[in-house]
Amino acid sequence: MNRVVSGKVEPVRRSYNKSKNNIPKVYVVGAGVRGRKHLTLEAISYLRKASLVLFFPFESISSEWLVDGLGVSMVESLAPLYQDGAVDAENYKRIINRIISAAQEFGSVAVLVPGHPRVGVSWVRELERRELEGQIQILVVDGISSFDTMITDLGLDPLENGAVVVDANRLLLYRLQLDPRLDYYIYHICSVGTSRTNYSNPALDNKLHYLKQWLLQSFPSNHEVMLIQSSTIQGKSSVLATCPLQELENISSLITFATSLFLPGLRISSKPIDKEFLALLAEK
């Protein structure tokens, strides 16, 4: 374990004795999308409260800034545990094991994750299982998610026409039926049909054609779709590319682990309505 102080790395050793009345605490803190700009006051308070902050370096968040700029006690990067080309489950197991061991050693740890901890961070469920076993206490601290920034960038109200947020692999695995009148935000299009985290080259095992074939059952082939990546710079366009659905594979080279696919719903001019319910809404 190292402590970063003014750019210098100093060895630190600390032990923590667990007691029945003091179960180790794990704060899973959302960092938002734009790094330092998106950290909430609540998030900062838990980072400072923890004895150790485990984090994934991204944007402007670094070990030096967390210690010197934010004043946290100690930091450790989890990046080496998330290995390129490894199976998701193996990466998550390494991360979970380190979180648990750190919590047992230090008493309280904060885990700083990009975005919101409840949006696409599946290993949080495993931490909750460990809590049920009495190993830790867990608290999830909100962060601004990529969905928040996407609807802002697109200028859309997800309630106006209705919207669905879904994982690409779950969409295909469970053969979820689509309503083409709704907007769709499809996450994890970087790893369709694979469990490997090829973040340096997502196209390596990405079977995007399976997703296209399923979407074509509900949307016309010329329906325009958008490849979205929430910009880390406010005001900068988040739309990386647009193309007809039938040409989805043509934009595969632009897909990263931070991109999502947006399918606007079909705008049907003569939508069927429930006239009796309309009468209720019209009552004064």
TrEMBL record:
GO molecular function: methyltransferase activity
Entry-linked Pfam families: TP_methylase (PF00590)
InterPro entries the record matches: 4pyrrol_Mease, 4pyrrol_Methylase_sf, 4pyrrole_Mease_sub1
Every Tetrapyrrole methylase domain range: 25-234
Protein name according to UniProt: Tetrapyrrole methylase domain-containing protein
Organism annotation: Collibacillus ludicampi
